[in-house]
Amino acid sequence: MPRFIRDRAVAPRSIGLVGSALVVAAACVPGGEEPAGRGVGTPPPPDTAPPVTGGAVVVRTEQVPGLGPVLTGPDGRAVYLFDEDGESKPTCLDGCARDWPPLTATAPPQAGPDVKPELLTTTRRPDGATQVVYNGHPLYYYIGDDVPGQANGHGVLSAGGYWYALSPEGNRI
């Protein structure tokens, strides 16, 4: 019996230490914003080659578990809309664009299967690059996606706004 009482006395201190560590860790992320690649349930950003951009890109769709068909770039990786962008006006620039690289092209983009060509356009970015737009949404990759079938950036709060994968109809999922 004395051993049981001793173990119970230690348990509250252990819980207190673990709880304190969680409070300190949570305080490191300002304003509820998720740092890129560290969102809830997302892996850290991989060290990979930059996403496919430039040239005549073909926008496609890919099945993503839990989301269904989502819009992708030519490499099959999900593309996202940023809810802070205006109609065909990209606002993710500089540091933001390092974590959320824009899908750019040097020729008119093409629609793959299940992609509506009438929704596919382009816009000029402030740096002069041509960004692919779908249903009025400038398209971006997420550096935390490594392979087709991932959408780790979906629902992430980053750069002052939320990021969402797009349906083939051109709406946020």
Detailed description of the structure:
The structure is a single chain. The chain is α+β, with helices and mostly antiparallel strands and 173 residues long. It has 2 helices and 9 strands. The strands form 3 sheets. Strands 2-1-4 form a 3-stranded mixed β-sheet, with no helix packed on it. A hairpin with a 2-residue loop joins strand 6 and strand 7 (137-138). Residues 1-12, 14-32 and 37-50 have low confidence and may be disordered.
With strands numbered from the N-terminus, the spatial order across the biggest sheet is 2-1-4
The SSE string, one letter per element, is HEEEHEEEEEE
Q: Which structural class matches the secondary elements?
A: alpha+beta
Q: Any idea what the shape is? A: globular
Q: Helix content range of the residues, please?
A: 10-25%
Distance between the termini: 57 Å
- Rg over CA atoms, rounded to whole Å, is 21 Å
- Number-wise, the strands total 9
Percent range for β-strand residues: 15-25%
Q: Uncertain spans, ≥5 residues at pLDDT below 50?
A: 1-12, 14-32, 37-50
